[in-house]
Amino acid sequence: AQLARDVTQLLNSIDAHAERLLASAGQRSELRSGLLAIRSATERAAAVARQLAGDAIPLPPEQVRDTTAHR
After folding, report:
1. Rounded-to-integer distance, Cα 67 and Cα 53, Å
2. Dist CA 63 CA 11 (whole Å)
3. Which of 43, 41, 22 is closest to 31 using CA atoms?
4. Phi/psi of residue 37, each to 5°?
5. How does pLDDT run across 4-39, given as a tens digit for each residue?
6. pLDDT digits (tens, 9 = 90+) for 27-71
């Protein structure tokens, strides 16, 4: 459970950095697209980590299955 919490904290840090970069990226679509993909991936990964820690109800498969959609 502690490992899942540590992973969640790392993902939150990644997400926060991506959010700041997104705010400074302006309308540069190539940057925005990549940063939005990072934020989406960190949200999904954090949900999985919470599941592993036993802090959340199971997620529907469509929320955890596709990790390559934003490439």
Report:
1. 21
2. 17
3. 22
4. -65, -40
5. 888 989 999 999 999 999 998 888 778 898 999 999
6. 877 889 899 999 999 999 988 888 888 755 555 666 555 545 554
**Tell me, what's the pLDDT at 12?**
92
Contact 48, 41 (CB under 8 A): no
Cβ atoms of residues 70 and 37 within 8 Å = yes
Contact call for residues 55 and 10 (beta carbons, < 8 A): no
Tokens 């939005």 correspond to 36
- Whose CA is closest to 42, among 65, 14, 3? 14
